[in-house]
Amino acid sequence: MRVSVMVLGAPAESSASRLALAVLEAAWAAGAELDTVFLYHKGTYAALNRAEQNGEWRRGSQRASAAGLRCVVCRTAWLSQMGAAATEIDPPFRLGGLADWLGACERSDKVLRFGSLS
Q1: Distance (Å, rounded) from C-alpha 105 to C-alpha 52?
Q2: I want to staple 49 with a disulfide (CB 3.0 to 4.6 A). Which of 33, 41, 58, 90 is the partner?
Q3: At 38, phi and psi to the nearest 5?
């Protein structure tokens, strides 16, 4: 089984990113293949290196990327949240787009969304 997740909620306002990380780690421990985590809307805040509350997510995503997980941050959402000057992002994350998410959905057996656009 191959798993992908989308995270919409900001780590400071929602448990979406922590729950997504827990699900990914549990899926990997159960033998599932990890495909993609796609950070969208306010979920992009989980990719910030300098935010202390995101340290857990960063460490977890680094472990997951070692298991083959693609860590993609939506470029449009990132620029919208961070401003036009914020074009660089730290590994294991990379900037991408909805085409990356659609590809993940095609490759995956299970697709989960955490958080909401509200």
Answers
A1: 31
A2: 90
A3: -115, 115
Cβ atoms < 10 Å from Cβ of 106: 10
Give 19's pLDDT tier (boundaries 50, 70, 90).
Answer: very high
Please give the structure tokens belonging to residue 80.
């919208």
* Residue 85: alpha-carbon gap to chain centroid: 21
pLDDT of residue 86: 67
Angle (deg, nearest 10), helices 16-29 and 55-66: 30
- C-alpha pair distances (Å), 18 with each of 45, 59, 65, 97: 12, 12, 16, 22
Starting at the edge strand that comes first in sequence, how are the strands of the sheet with 110-114 ordered? 93-96, 70-74, 33-39, 2-7, 110-114
C-alpha span between 66 and 68 (Å, rounded): 5
Q: Tell me if residue 23 falls in helix, strand or coil.
A: helix
Look at residue 6 and give its three-state secondary structure.
strand
